[in-house]
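Q&A log
Question type: sequence-to-structure
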Amino acid sequence: MTIGWLAVWLVLLGAVALLAMMLWRRVLLLRREVRNLVTDGPLSNDIPGPRIIREIHQDLREMARRQREFTRQIADEDFSLRAILASMVEGVLIADSHLRIRLTNERLHQMFSLPKPPVDRTVMEVFRNHLLHQVIQQTLDTEEPRSAELQAEIREGDQFQLKHFQVTSVSLRPREHESLTGALVIFHDVSQIRSLEAVRKEFVANVSHELRTPLAIITGYLETLIEGGGDQETNLRFLKTMHKHAQRLNLLIEDLLALSQLESRKISLHFETVDLVESMNRVLERLDSRIRESGASVTINVPKHLPRIEADGFRIEQAIHNLVENALRHCGKSGVKVTVEVRSDGRTAAISVHDDGVGIPLSDQPHIFERFYRVHKDRSRDAGGTGLGLSIVKHTVQAHGGSVSVQSEPGAGATFVIKLPIRQN
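Response status: OK
Response body:
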């Protein structure tokens, strides 16, 4: 009897042990599936065993599916965010409540020429700008948007350029009733706008000055004549002086209108076949009296078979006229030698005007084609120029699809080169 019960117990223990072993194996399989879930590995289609094991496995598979879905959504949102930030022309920065940078876009790196990634560094450490630090801090303190205009010297190559940035800072509060998490800062480069404003102000000031001077002279002489004037010879001298300055006013107004039309592209170019030799000869005929008065000599060098070009003949003659007249007016000495030369490679025609005058200082050469820019301001005004001739040349040549440049060394004269296409596209 005792032996029988012992056998029964042994059978039961064996069954329990076998069942425990089978459950242990299923648990090990579930453990492997959990690890695969954590490491984003593949899950088995099914695990044999008791119902509870199969249900747990199904729950794991559902968790894996949701995890893949969430991962895909996060990846899509991350891609969209990066695409938006990369396509923006503004610089973007996100800082936390401690003013530590959490995110930036590539445009911000380009704006400030940042030498290393700014993420996980403070705003002050990266930009060294107290106004920017103050704007962001005020946003964090008040939760109100703040705006300011920053000036910063940005390294471009071996030089520093002063740039202007419009900065707007707003607070970040992802969900309602959550604590403030940081600030979003937008940087807009307004350097070109400020530069244009400065050019406009300078232009208005220059035009006002150029108009005021001859008008003041004419008004003064007119008042003298109205009050009785002097003898006939004096009155005639007064009238000649007024006529001279009236012509100067007329020339200034004509140049301003021509430059305005060229800059706004409202002018219509009348393209025709142009013989550059004939154009240069007509220019020299109009300047003959000035050439003889200054004792200058002008030489034209052209190849025998120079192709004709498609251009607006009147505008090209005006450009050549301005360059030759500029050489005669600003040479700084009498008896200047001016050489006008034309070369062609079959696709472009290069017209160069060279003089052996005093040359142009290196610091002035980048600005020589700007409106009203004068190297020797007082002497240029005495010579009667409007300060618009070279600017008209530049815009005329560009309207033809060409380019103009200057080469000069102080004391060694100057060479202006116009390059024009032979044929217009």
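Response note: The two ends are 117 Å apart (CA to CA).
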